[in-house]
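Thread: Newbie trying to understand structure tokens

Hi all, I'm a second-year student working on a class project, and my supervisor (Dr. K.) asked me to get a predicted structure for one chain before our next meeting. I've only ever worked with sequences, so writing a 3D structure as a token string is new to me. If someone could post the tokens and maybe explain what I'm looking at, I'd be very grateful. Here's the chain:
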Amino acid sequence: MALAAGVLTVADPALAQPSPGASRSDGPGRRADDGHHPGGDGQGQDGHGKAGGQDRRGNRHRAVPVKGPVLPAGDAGDSRVPTGSGLRTALGATVQDKSLGTLNYAVADAATGEFLFGANENTPATPASTTKLATAVAALAVLPAGHRIATTVVQGAPGEITLVGGGDPTLTALPVDQVRVGGAPVDRESAPASLADLARRTAAALKAAGTTDVKLSYDTSLYSGPVLHKEHDAMNIAAVTALMVDEGRVDPRSTDEGPARVFDPAGQAADAFANLLKAEGVTVRKKGGQAAAPAGATELARVESPEIGRLVERMLTTSDNQLAEAVARQVALAAKQPAGFDGAAAAVTAELAKLGVPTAGVVLTDGSGLASANQIPPVTLVKLLSAAASPQHPELRPVITGLPVAGFTGTLAGRFGAKSGAGEAAGIVRAKTGSLSNVNTLAGTVVDADGRVLAFALMTRTGAAPEAARAAVDRIVAKIAACGC
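---
Reply by user tm_fold:
Sure, no problem. This is what the structure looks like when written as tokens:
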């Protein structure tokens, strides 16, 4: 398998040589997801939020001390597996840092899933957003690679139509050239479905039938149970409904980490659709509110989300809570479970067990990791990552490609900076972050000094400042990367 992070240009050739070893902070009582702005020393981004920065020689976009691709080509026999005693020596005092508080961790060989070293690796801990790894693996395992989430419009009685939510929170009311994900424009494969396209197709079908005014209802019946997450704060996550646009943001162009969310995402979507129909020459003479579509109703139009692999990559790179809950519900629907918090959690857990991932001690109550009640042992996380990296499971590969790259992308853009003590691991670590009050987690893959791909999971509970705890975690990963042991 060959999955590289990409090729980076270098301002100073001397900096391109291999290295020698070659969510935001929470206030009191407040929970948030992963930090999306630069933390710690801030070296991961420049003043415009772009990856890079100035090095000590004044170069913009400092080069990465790359020792090899994030997942190099070759099989398990191409490089030496580190030993447990070697890892113990390499990690040394880094795992004793007081900023870590209580630390549970595990390191495994990504090629085989073999556990190599750790402490309290079988003891469940609060995973925070590393929960999304479980959601991602389950979704890719149970859903076809080409699976897309559809939003449709169906014909009811004459002159009546229903907008039917299929569970796609990325459906957008914006023009595609204005859509940004993690601050970057979308490409053809990752572009979300367009509500304007749906209105245009619906209007065309109605006009073809001689109709230019309608009664509009909307259907959210695909989901069941509570719509509000137990940790709902109308910023990190909106109400979880089967119909919404732009993830329920008040301002769909907002770049805030936790943007303000509307109270009624489904109603917002229906209103936006009515306005778009009007722009296409169809008048909504009456809004019928929320109602299930008639059984056997004729479909007038549809739009579809990107494929599930692209949704998973977006979810992991940006740690998207809203999308994670939607993806978990797609797992529930595929497993014929109720598409709510409980059904989704049960379906994800069951799918992991089918894959042979150890689920002893696993407790899931959501798909995003916002829930403080979730529990996952570190050994489960490294087994998830090893399965995703394995040639035996190519369908799981978007889990690896969707992980943020240390110092450069997603929720790791502002970490592994020069002042963190972990800068030499920038660019060669892919990992999912997790952050709740007093909890910081990191789980991903790293290439060690011998070119071996290792999976790791580090889970802390500490009263230390989040920036200090994250830097301490990053230094452990840097030691693993430098290990030729």
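A couple of things are worth pointing out once you decode it. The chain has ten helices and twelve strands. Residues 346 and 364 are 8 Å apart (CA to CA). Feel free to ask follow-ups in this thread.
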